[in-house]
Prior knowledge:
InterPro entries: Class_I_gatase-like, HST_MetA, MetA_family. The protein is α/β, with parallel strands linked by helices. Helix content is 30%, strand content 24%.
Amino acid sequence: MPVNIPDKLPAIEILKKEHIFVMDDLRASTQDIRPLRILILNLMPVKVTTETDLIRLLSNSPLQVEIEFLGLSTHTPKNTPIEHLMSFYTNFSKIKNAYYDGMIITGAPVEMLPFDEVKYWKEFTQILDWARTHVTSTFYICWGAQAALHHFYGINKYPLEKKLFGVFKHRINDPSFPLFRGFDDEFYAPHSRHTTILAEEINRHPALTILSESDEAGVYIVTSRGGREFYVTGHSEYSPSTLHKEYIRDKEKGMDSVALPENYYRNNDPEQPPLVQWRSHANLLYINWLNYFVYQATPFNIEEVAQLGEL
């Protein structure tokens, strides 16, 4: 089934060239089913890239998905045209009385700042609290995951000696957990971050469960509230070229000691294309989240989300 996204969103033409079935609002209105309503709070600097990456994965489900984008009124991105934001993004005041089947909250380029020094922290945490009563299941990514774990459970983030940058092997702690349906025993996922969270802190909190870890990248996926929240420290949504673009960007900025992304280029040679090892599991991750923790858990009357307990 297609994913339903706003008319004229740049991702539409990009994804059609990849033979991914997307549907605009007009055509979707003729189908007599209730689509899943997914809200995306996109905090990444290059909005169009992140929009496309996430829609690509959300489109690989037999479910019809209706996507809305949320921005922050207390922050104006520098790398996205204001016309794009005005056309495709809403703000919290306009949707705070609405309910959603699922929500995705992305990372943000503020991980080196203490949480309470992020200028939009107050608005951001208001949205986190709202999601707990207005969204069936929320999927937090990278800094978004660290920030939500800190806000809800007091989990700290710690600076790494060097940037964790590359594609790393992960293991599953509970293979029977529905999020990993169809996964292999080991799988790969990209990471790009300067900070980390510690397994020992998470394990001390009875409400949190570590679902997946890596010897190199540490904690990868944490869940709470019976699957109503997932915290993912990496970037399964990344396209094959994203780490390459980050590497070239940092080199062009003249940053000292720019390291190659690990386990990424063929023969560890940046002149060769990346060896993509994470796309199949990325698709499964999002399909399983949509199926088992959104579609099968959300009420048909979406306003009843407020009455949900643990899944």
